[in-house]
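Page 42, continued from yesterday. The earlier attempt failed because a stray header line got pasted into the input along with the sequence. Redoing it now with the clean sequence only.
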Amino acid sequence: MASNPPDNQDAPVVLAEPFLFGILGLGIVNGIFSPFTGFVFLVNAFWYPSTFLPVSAPFILLFASLITSTLTIMLAGVPAAIYERLANGGRTNTMSLWIWVSTLAILSMPAVLRAFSAL
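This time it went through. Structure tokens are written below.
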């Protein structure tokens, strides 16, 4: 009597490292050069814990950059997650990673253009 393999063994292995390097690179560029980083910097009274961190502009700018890049990466992952859910039953494949990178590239376009204009 032949047994069926578990569901996780019949899925192809996806090499995600090149995509993750692209995602992280675009996230870094977006965090540094995005016009929204200035807005996040200006509303620091709502998110910056000034009770135990020093209130200095470089510190606040560092965290504003991290918040901007993290939120952009998370927002770009939403269409990829929807595609994974609808098309693959929750499994990651190369197409969902391409969707994530391309959505992040579109969202990072103002920051990339600003980075090139700074050169």
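Notes: The mean pLDDT is 86.
Reminder to self: strip header lines before submitting.
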